[in-house]
Amino acid sequence: MRTKEVIQSLHPYQPGKATSDVKREFGLNRIVKLASNENPFGCSSEVKKVLKNSLDDINFYPDGHSRQLRQKLADHIGVHEDSLIFGSGSDEIVQMLCRTFLEPGTNTVMASPTFPQYRHHAKIEGAEVREVPVKDGFHDLDSMLEEIDEHTRIIWLCTPNNPTGNYISETELFNFLKRCPEHVLIIIDEAYYEYVTAKDYPETIPLLKTYKNIMILRTFSKAYGLAGLRIGYGMADKFIIQSLNAVRGPFNTTSLTQKAALAALGDQSFIQYTREENKKNMQSLQAFCDEHNLGYYQSEGNFLLIHLPKSGMEVSQELLKHGFIVRPGELLGIDNTIRVTIGTKEDMNEFQQKLLLCL
Ligand SMILES: Cc1ncc(COP(=O)(O)O)c(C=O)c1O
């Protein structure tokens, strides 16, 4: 048997450590996972109610078109129903995009570090990956534009960027759009959209009318708290959506997932609560870092990338012994840092005490 050549040079995605494994390894009763930017407040209670009452239909295939969810979401965000596509997480849409647009002889431009799945799937399709280092955590949009040539098919803008948390301001984005050639598909990944409070964060949906080469990605995994169910969505011109539908599996989101997302969407008070708590707990973590001379990137997401006086790998290993799972920056492309998901107030207070013991 022979795989594609490139597969041998790729490493499978390394998820954050599982809580059950850490409990067993260190003989702990309680673990706080701050490693994968999940919602520490769970999800809307409406979701749980709906799921309990939805088990009778699981012998049937789901609605492959996600009609109900599509209608509700289109209405909620103000786009045409045909401009939407759903995926098993926005991860799957990234994969569909690469399958649809990339092939050997083409290239794709992205920041470094950024969400690693762009690179991963682009490589699998045999495309050249052009990575442009971030500047103080921000996308270097001028240098990214310089990397574009006639073979460029996709450029990825992750805003807020994972793992740095920095966002692209309205002025920066608008300038970029004016200068980016029309043959390049611009992906604006807004996985952390619901957390953003910055006043100059752009509202991108109206741009879909003017620019036919934009796709916006969002997810129910983060603020909506449905990471375990796997559902995300993309918004774009019909031509792009139709092309992606050609590679999409017919039943790529489940009936339970669609119902959960529908219920989650209907409970915006949960999103409001999540956003407010995240902001408060983010501010106290930043104040803690200031007090202890630990630098960090300005984040608009639900995570903070903190600079350390030593290896992030070492510190995260020490933190495990105290029951906290965080992501070492060495795995994300910025050494001597850790990326910490913003948790509940109580957990963050305890985390700060434990972090001091590990420095
Ligand atoms: C920037 C970004 N995009 C996309 C995703 C994928 O999210 P999901 O597949 O759960 O929708 C993540 C998850 O961490 C992310 O950080």
Main sheet record: 7 strands, mixed
- The number of strands is 12
H and E string:
HEHHEHEHEHEHEHEEHHHEHEEEH
What ranges have pLDDT less than 50 throughout 5 or more consecutive residues?
A: none
Overall geometry comes to: globular
Share in β-strands: 15-25%
N→C terminal distance? 48 Å
What level of helicity do the residues show?
A: 25-40%
Helix/strand structural class: alpha/beta
Furnish the topology, listing elements before pairings:
Layout: H1 19-26, E1 32-33, H2 45-52, H3 67-77, E2 84-87, H4 90-101, E3 107-112, H5 117-124, E4 128-133, H6 141-146, E5 152-158, H7 170-179, E6 185-189, H8 207-210, E7 214-219, E8 232-236, H9 238-245, H10 255-266, H11 268-291, E9 303-307, H12 312-321, E10 324-325, E11 327-328, E12 337-341, H13 345-358
Parallel strand pairs: 1-10, 3-4, 3-5, 5-6, 6-7
Antiparallel strand pairs: 2-8, 7-8, 9-12, 11-12
Helix pairs in contact: 2-10, 3-10, 4-5, 11-13
Bound molecules: pyridoxal-5'-phosphate (PLP).
Residues 37, 89-91, 115, 158, 162, 189, 191, 219, 221, 227, 232 line the site of pyridoxal-5'-phosphate.
